[in-house]
Amino acid sequence: MKQNSYLGGLIHAIGSLLTGMKTSMTVFLRQKTTEQYPENRATLKLSPRFRGTLIMPHNDNNEHRCVACGLCQMACPNDTIRVTSHTVETEDGKKKKVLEKYEYDLGSCMFCQLCVNACPHDAITFDQNFEHAVFDRTRLVLTLNHPGSHTEEKKKSATPQSEAAKQAVICTNNNL
């Protein structure tokens, strides 16, 4: 009986060994998925949905779309965004908020994108940058609006009613 159990154990051990070798060889023959990161920066492909650093895009005239409404600041669960603004009076007597400083603390951000979704003007977005390593935490607090930047002016577009009114005037003048 000892020989039978010894032989049975040996067969079971060889079966387990072959199962492990089969698994190892299957993984060994698969295509590599590990990327050699520092060497392949030029060919590195990230998912389009990847959320890197929060940015505020500016155009060639150093203008941004942020109107300092503060919705992104209220939507952020970690208080990583601080919007500082002041109020000015426009030519037509209305009060308007003007962005002074837009601070973003990258160190406490969860990259949840609630701030981007809350922004009604699409003033902020995430880019593909993922290299955030620094030696000093204060370097993780970023000011997103560029020095001297200001809000884009809304282009005055004709409303459909005014276009219809112009067409009516043209038709009336042609009939006279």
Short key terms for the protein model shown above:
176 residues; NADH dehydrogenase (quinone) (non-electrogenic) activity; elongated; alpha+beta; cell membrane; 4Fe-4S; ubiquinone; NADH_quinone_OxRdtase_chainI; single chain; 7 strands
Could you list the spans in which at least 5 consecutive residues all have pLDDT below 50?
none
- CATH topology descriptor of the domain at 54-154: Alpha-Beta Plaits
The global form is: elongated
Write down the CATH class of the domain at 54-154. Answer: Alpha Beta
Taking the alpha carbons of the first and last residues, their distance comes to 120 Å
Number of helices: 4
Q: Tell me about the biggest sheet?
A: 3 strands, antiparallel
Strand order of the largest sheet: 3-4-6
Order of helices and strands: HEEHEEHEEEH
Give Rg in angstroms: 31 Å
How much of the sequence lies in strands comes to 15-25%
Please estimate the helix content: 25-40%
Corresponding CATH architecture of the domain at 54-154: 2-Layer Sandwich
What structural category arises from helix and sheet content?
Answer: alpha+beta
Number of separate strands: 7
> Quick check: average pLDDT?
86
Please provide a written account of the structure:
This protein is α+β, with helices and mostly antiparallel strands. It has a domain at 54-154: Alpha-Beta Plaits, CATH 3.30.70. It has helices spanning 2-29, 71-75, 114-118, 160-175, and strands at residues 54-55, 63-64, 81-89, 95-105, 125-126, 141-143, 150-151. A 3-stranded antiparallel β-sheet has the order 3-4-6, with no helix packed on it. The chain has a two-stranded antiparallel sheet with strand order 1-5. The chain has a two-stranded parallel ribbon with strand order 2-7. Strand 3 and strand 4 (95-105) form a beta hairpin. The longest helix has 28 residues, at 2-29.
